Structures are given as C-alpha cells and as structure tokens.
User: Which sequence fits this backbone?
C-alpha cells in the first residue's frame, strides 16, 4: 500500500517499524484472528485509547487508504478504529498539542472523504453509522465540508432508516452548525 | 451513578440498587429468598457483580448522542471491605483502571471492556505497572504478554 510508505515512521515514534509491520499485517491478512491481533497491537503499543498523538495523522491516513481495499468484518473493524481515532472522545480535556494532532488527522481523512461517502451510499447499517459519526466530526471541524456532508446525510437517512436518529442528532446539534449552512450551489 | 453491593451476611442485597434477579443470576441462581443467600460473597462473585455493572454501562452508550462523547473503556471495581461494586469509565486523561482506583483505592478490578469493540481488552503496560496483576481476574490478558 503506497500510503504506508509515504510516511517516515521512524521520525514519529520509537519502535515504529512494529507499527508499520502491524499496519501491513492489518491490510494483508485474510484471517480474522490475524487482523484483529494487528489492530490490538497498534492500539496497545502506539495509541492511548484513541487520545490523539503525533501518530494519529499518519495512522488515520493509512486507515482511510486501507478501507477501500477491504470489505466485510475487516472493513467494519477498520472503520471502527478510525472513528475512535478521529472523533475526539473527551476533546474538551485535550491539550493544545493534542488538538493540533487531531486537526491534522481530520485534514488527512477529509482528503479521503469520498471513501466515507461511498460507504454511506452503499454500506450496511453498521458501517454507514460509523461513517455518519466520522463525517459529522469532519463537518464540525472543517466547516466548508458541511453542506456537502449534509447532502449525503439526507440521502443516507432515507437509504438506511436505522441510522436516521444519528443523522438527525448531528443535523440538529449545536456543535455541527455547518451541516445547516446551506448548499454548495450557493457558490454559483 | 448506579452501583451495587455484592452482598454481605445479613445484608445480601442493597435493594433497589442492583436487582435481586440480576444478582441471583450472577451467583448461579440460589433461589428467591435473600435470607437463604445471606453469606459473605467470594472475591470472584464481587468482581462478577462489578463486571456486570461495567457491561451495563457499556451497553448504555449504544444510543445516539455523538460518537465523541462515549468513553473508550469501562471497568468494574469491587471493594471487598465494603462489598461495594461500581462501574467506571475512562477519560481523555486517565485510563478506566485509574479512574476506578482513584475512587475506590482498595478495589479489585474486572477486566477492562472496550466500549467500541464490545469486548474485553488487554490491560495496558502502564496500568499493569501501576496496579499489578493481582487486582485483576485470573483470566485477564495483559498487553505485555501479547507482543
């Protein structure tokens, strides 16, 4: 996976070759036990239960690249891990540095926006729901994405009624004002 | 915050805090009369109650309300001196193990549960260093062992 080699892992962390190996294993493995073990290794050794670190950006970027190569339970697990990384759990307690790392990760994921939108358009309820959480997070942090994501949310809530409550929550939440900011056609 | 008692002689259950049916089920079904079940709970039983409370808390996060507001990990704690059991959640600054032992310094801990995965996760190395292995159930997995 080219995205994996784009990052100079050694510049980010000690023992980073183990992270690179675990990511490779995650992408390549077909056996559930192997890829779940790879995720566990990454989480335990390099991530503090989703709290942002200097590695959040490269990892988020690699996970976005990985989701287009996998499907089924493995894609669900990767989406779930990615959501944990970028959705900013306990964000109000983050340091300035942690906020910056998270913001950089958001920008990386935003470059793969269409991957998440594709899953929203075609994926099952579980995968679509995780994309709703991630896309809402992106809209909250990158306001210019709001109208585009709001459009996809409107389509998704009709296609997958089971996620309508989540979509509606974000559409009406004060933290996600950009989702109500009109349409991209306003620029015409 | 919901908590429970694992049961003590003459005071098997703190009614209204944890349900009798729930507790009897955890204890293997001793019948419906609390007097007949009045005895000191084993440590294992106490931690099982704490674990059940942790699962209950984990399952309470499955609704809407924003992914970012869910904690990463929940854990149960049981204090054998007071028979109190309670569930705790991790924060952005403190692992669930730390949150639990800050509140209940002498507590035994259940296995940590990932809210996201809906499954037990290994105890990380810093938590093992801080709290030791003996606070956790015998079948707990430790990160140090799975490299």
Assistant:
């Amino acid at each position: 996976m080219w995205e994996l080699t784009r990052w100079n892992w050694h510049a980010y962390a000690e023992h980073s070759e183990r992270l690179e190996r675990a990511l490779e294993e995650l992408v390549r493995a077909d056996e559930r036990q192997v890829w779940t073990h790879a995720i566990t290794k990454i989480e335990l050794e390099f991530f503090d239960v989703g709290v942002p670190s200097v590695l959040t950006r490269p990892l988020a970027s690699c996970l976005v690249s990985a989701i287009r190569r996998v499907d089924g339970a493995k894609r669900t697990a990767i989406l779930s891990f990615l959501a944990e990384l970028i959705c900013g759990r306990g964000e109000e307690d983050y340091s300035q540095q942690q906020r910056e790392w998270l913001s950089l990760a958001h920008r990386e994921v935003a470059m793969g926006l269409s991957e998440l939108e594709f899953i929203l358009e075609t994926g099952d309820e579980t995968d679509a729901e995780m994309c709703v959480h991630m896309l809402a997070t992106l809209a909250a942090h990158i306001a210019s994405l709001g109208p585009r994501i709001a459009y996809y949310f409107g389509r998704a809530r009709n296609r997958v009624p089971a996620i309508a409550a989540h979509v509606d929550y974000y559409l009406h939440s004060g933290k996600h004002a950009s989702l109500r900011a009109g349409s991209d056609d306003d620029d015409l | 915050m919901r908590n429970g008692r694992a049961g003590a002689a003459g005071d098997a259950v703190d009614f209204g805090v944890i349900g009798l049916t729930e507790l009897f089920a955890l204890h293997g079904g001793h019948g419906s009369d609390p007097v007949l079940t009045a005895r000191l709970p084993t440590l294992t039983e106490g931690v099982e109650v704490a674990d059940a409370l942790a699962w209950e808390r984990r399952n309470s996060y499955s609704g809407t309300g924003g992914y970012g507001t869910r904690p990463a990990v929940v854990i149960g704690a049981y204090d054998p001196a007071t028979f109190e059991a309670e569930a705790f959640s991790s924060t952005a600054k403190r692992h669930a193990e730390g949150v639990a032992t800050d509140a209940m310094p002498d507590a035994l801990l259940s296995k940590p549960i990932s809210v996201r995965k809906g499954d037990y996760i290994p105890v990380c190395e810093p938590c093992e260093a801080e709290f030791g292995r003996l606070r956790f159930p015998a079948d707990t997995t430790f990160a140090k062992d799975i490299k």
